[in-house]
Amino acid sequence: MSDDRDLDLVLFGATGFTGGLTAEYLAAHAPAGLRWAIAGRNPDRLASVRGRLGADVEVLVADASDPVALSDVARRARVVISTVGPYLTHGGPLVAACAEAGTDYVDLTGEPEFVDRMFLEHHQTAVRTGARLVHACGFDSVPHDLGAYFTVQQLPSDQPITLRGVVRSGGTFSGGTFHSALNQFARAKEMRRTYAARRRVEDRPEGRTSRSVGGKPHRDPVLGYWLLPLPTIDPIVVARSGAALPAYGPEFRYSHWAGTKTLRYAAGGAVGVGALSLAAQVRPLRELLLSRVPQGSGPDAAKREKSWFTVDFVGEAGGQTVRTKVSGGDPGYTETAKMLSESALCLAFDDNPPTAGQVTPAQAMGDALLARLQKAGIGFETL
Fold first, then answer.
1. DSSP letter string over 368-383?
2. Which pLDDT tens digit goes with each residue over 110-147?
3. CA-to-CA distance for 81 and 41, rounded, in angstroms?
4. What is the DSSP letter of 138?
5. Which of 38, 106, 272, 297 lies 20 to 30 Å (CA to CA) from residue 30?
C-alpha cells in the first residue's frame, strides 16, 4: 500500500452503540501517534462522539450509500473499520470503495450472504489492488477462527484433523445482531444460492480438503455438555481458514455447537431457534420482532461487566487429542469492540502474512492477531 495515506485508520459507524464502544477502545488503547478518524452521515452526532472521546480524532461526514464520499474516505485511509449493519442492507458500497482503493477493511458481520456477495463482487478487485477484506472480526468469528488456529498448531499437520468448538455465554445480544440474524433467516434461499455461486468460482486447496460438518444434538463425552448445532457464520469461516492454511492438515473437519449443562436447556434452545426461523418467513411477524429490538442500543456498563463467554475446542489427529479454551468478557459488545479494534490495528501495524482479497482473520493475521488478543485480555489456554 502507498505510504501517502494521511490516516492510518477510519472507523465508519462510530455513532452506533457498538461503533461508539469501538471508538472508546481505540481512544484508550491506540498507539501513540495514531492518525485516525471517525466517519458517518450525521455531523452533530459525530461531533458528540468526538467530544466524549477527548481524543485527537478527525471527523469525516459520509453516507453509507454515497459512493463518491466513500471513495474519498477509503483513499485517505490505510484501514477502514465498518460497524454499519445490517451489512446486506448498508455495507456493500464501503467494501467496494476499499477494494478499489487498495484499502484494508474489517467489519463485525455475521451475515453469510453478505460475505459471499462481497467475495463474488470484490475479491478479484482486492487481489489486484492488494486490499485485504476481512469480515467477521467481532465475536463472529474471531474467538472461533483464532481458537481453531491456536488448537491446530498443537496437532500434527500431516494427519487428518477433526475439531469441534463449543460455545457458552452469559450476555445480551445486540439489536444489530438480532436484525442481521432475522433477515438472514428470511433469506435462506438467497443465502444458499449465493453460497453455491461462490463455491463455483473460488479456488480450492490442492491435495487437501477442509469443510464444516453438522450433526444432531447429543451429549459431548469429553466436555460433558449437551451440544446443539449453531447455525452461524463461524464454522464457515473456520473451514475457509482450514482451506487456506496447510497447518490444518490434509483433511480438516470442523463442527460448531452451543453447549448447555442440561438437556432441558438444549431442547429449549433448539425450539427457540426453530420458532425464530419460522417467524422470519412471515413478514408481519418478522417486522414485529424487529420493532421490539431496536438497532443502535445495548446494555449498560454494569450488565456488560457481568457478561462472559467461553469456547471449548477438542481437536484430534493421529491418535492425539488436544483440549483448548478461549474465554473473555461480554461477547456482544465489549469484547467485540476489542476484537474489531485489535484486528484493524493488526492490519495497520503488524508483520502479517502476505495476502490480498477477501481473507479470514486467521489467514490474514494469524500469530500477530493471536498475540494482540492475548495481550488485550482474551484467554487462549491449553487444558
1. HHHHHHHHTT-EEEE-
2. 999 999 999 999 999 999 999 999 999 999 999 999 99
3. 15
4. B
5. 297
